[in-house]
């Protein structure tokens, strides 16, 4: 129906030029600069919520294990999480539709749905990557200890930044790249301090195969997050609940296909998705679903980097909490690491470190000229 | 002769309003912004020279010890260092005077000398503080191990910045304060990695008296450096060799008085200033003299902060050199520490982190207006 460069408007059905990544990022930036206060309040809310959910997760994972192992299929947890998110998105969509003003086009009409589904087909990409990643995550937690998993996860910070630059055409100032490097250093210091000494005790993989595995483990979720941010922002006018519905719908489908594959390989007994589940695993599923929903808000209204900082702050709080609860002493490394993380955070979000319009420096001058004239 | 607020011009002998700290700093800033390229080349030269001298010092100190002790009076090293610096300043002054153009007022005339001496009387303050500090330094090296001395010295970074703000009215941006904190963290990490484990092995003082001692040990040299910078820059037109002559002259006098005091207390045998000296101590004296001379160039043409960064880079090179020579492994902490130091250095000197003229934001606009007009 539409040419590759054209796209149909979901409201007036007119053919439009398909937005490029540059226009996606610009349009979003314009939105941002219009609502700085509302934006900041939302960011704080997102970070606080995320900290609570991320902080709870290791406890729930621990509680879900029976004799140090998971007695249920990891795929089933993922499928149930997707289903929980789909249910949440549906409920929110119904609430939003009820509160619509009389003049507006109904959110629940079939034509809106079909049009939005077509426009948001790109969400299948992050959904697939997430499905792969969720499976990898469980595998990693079985083969490496949680500290090592967290340690390797740190590298995501820089990988995400590089992907944002490539896919979203986002530009970071030198100070911001330095801030991200400082974040990586700060998190690593925090973790070195909490790990037993010696490289052997850290359980770090040394074989070549393990490096490839690590590379995949770091790149897949980073790619998923950045693609998700891209897909959500490129259809900025579609309701986030509708977008979530597609994302989680695709997610549920991919996870279901994964389970079907397992059935083919391992036989039909692994088809019982409720096998081995307990109250703790249900809580884990709700926690996972909550984190997933929050993520989409991060990606659409803030960005992947803020999500990373949020997780780091959560880790720091977990560190303080475990020190308070279990009487661990806070090492010099941990304190130095925290200082670095907070300096990094301030530098990354400081207006001082904003990218200057170097390529078209005239633009800046133009805007000052305007101010100049308006002052006259 | 002159009132407290007035000062006599050294060339035309007219009475002038004494420059305030604000005008000192402004006048210097103007000089800096006029010659950015020449300035940068000089800075690089200063840092390279300083790195070499600072790197050599621990080796010479080690070589100067006999059975782990100094067999000579520390005061005599200081006095001889001051004498070496006076000789150097005199030689350079003679060379400068020979290269003067016929029209210029002779650098060697008595009137120039007396006038300059009167204007630069403030140099006696840093000279006294240095004399005290040099004595403290030797004492510290005897009672604490060198690693602890270096560790405590790190605090100077922030003390110097605070003193520069108070005395020189220098303004640092938030990014620059953060960069200085990062420098402190980076150096500390480097040193934690090279120290034996446990607080006892670090030989850190724990008694209250030791804290006071540490406070003095950190504040005296910081105060000396900042006062030196102030005194040298406030008489920017006086030849640096003439200023050095006064500074080191005062230094020699204070050190001589110190020796006299020792003679009174300990008896005349300690008056033999060459007692216990060897070729190694002579090299140490030349190295000390070289560092002192370089410092005055740092203070007059760059600043105390650049001197601190320079010393840190020297320490890093020493770390690499000792790793290469003695086969030490470089720890993760050391590598993370170095990364932080270099990020800090870039951030501190980055034009992005320059202090904005926040108080009179109109100024910025004014300057753009000018550009604007010149473009029309």
UniProtKB/TrEMBL annotation, chains A, B:
TM region positions: 41-63, 75-95, 107-131, 151-167, 174-192, 204-224, 245-268, 280-301, 313-343
GO molecular function, a single term: pyrimidine nucleotide-sugar transmembrane transporter activity
UniProt subcellular location: Membrane
Keywords from the named record: Membrane, Sugar transport, Transmembrane, Transmembrane helix, Transport
Keyword Transferase: no
GO cellular component: a single term: Golgi membrane
Domain of life (superkingdom): Eukaryota
Pfam family, one: Nuc_sug_transp
Family from the record: Belongs to the nucleotide-sugar transporter family. CMP-Sialate:CMP antiporter (TC 2.A.7.12) subfamily.
Protein name: Putative nucleotide-sugar transporter
Record lineage: Eukaryota, Viridiplantae, Streptophyta, Embryophyta, Tracheophyta
